[in-house]
Amino acid sequence: MQLTEAESDAIIELFNLGMGRAAGALGQMVDAEVALSVPSLEIVRRTDAPDQLGCPAGQRICAVRQTFAGPFDGQAMLIFPEGSSLELVRRLLPDSPPLGDMTDLEEEALTEVGNVILNHCLASFANLLHSEIRTEIPIYQIGRPEEIIGTAAGTTASTYVLIIRVDFGLFAKRIEGHVLFLQDIASIQAFQTAIRAFVASMDA
To answer: Residues 3, 167: contact at Cβ < 8 Å?
Structure first.
């Protein structure tokens, strides 16, 4: 599964639009400007995705997962290394205790961050691709990458992951995050078809 340079550029453009709006909303939540790095993009087999995230062995990640359906189906995930998640949630909830696992309130805060970011990204895709994308309520998860992405229990070779990497800058700190789209071959092909139509309309 590969994307052409034009398709990759179009996806990054759509993602940038969504993330720009999400950064504005997130900035209001933390009362600070949110800086974003230039996204990078690649498609890998789902079984290879944990290695592509670059997390040290044994390190847990926090994720907000949202199922979506439309002309292409799948799951969107916002993933942070556990340390970045704790740093972000401390900015959202300054009265949180300094150490220990996340409380229910902190998990709700991080889930809301994921909801804002993923919904803005999917909404940008839907608006510019002239498609309706339906979403479910996001859920919060924490665990090792292979557990979160679903490879620990085994998965079919036909499942791929579209990985978009972006760094968040908050209060002069870098908070690394990843947005993943988990899709099977048929869904990614439908997504590519929609992107090609978008590229063609831009060239017309």
So the answer is: no
In the block, which residue shows the tokens 């831009």?
202
- 192 Cβ partners below 8 Å, 6+ apart? 3, 7
> Can you tell me whether residue 139 is helix, strand or coil?
strand
Cα-to-chain-centroid distance, residue 153 = 22
* DSSP states of 17-74: HHHHHHHHHHHHHHTS--EEPPPEEEEEEGGGHHHHTTPPTT--EEEEEEEEESSS-E
Tokens of 127: 């608006």
Task: Note down pLDDT in tens along the chain; length 204 residues.
Answer: 678 888 888 888 888 888 888 888 888 877 777 788 888 888 888 888 877 776 666 778 889 999 999 888 888 988 887 777 777 777 777 665 555 556 777 788 889 888 988 998 888 888 888 889 999 999 999 888 888 887 544 445 457 788 887 777 766 566 777 888 888 878 888 888 888 888 888 776
Distance separating alpha carbons of residues 179 and 122, to the nearest angstrom: 11
Distance separating alpha carbons of residues 11 and 29, to the nearest angstrom: 26
The token pair at 57 is 């062995």
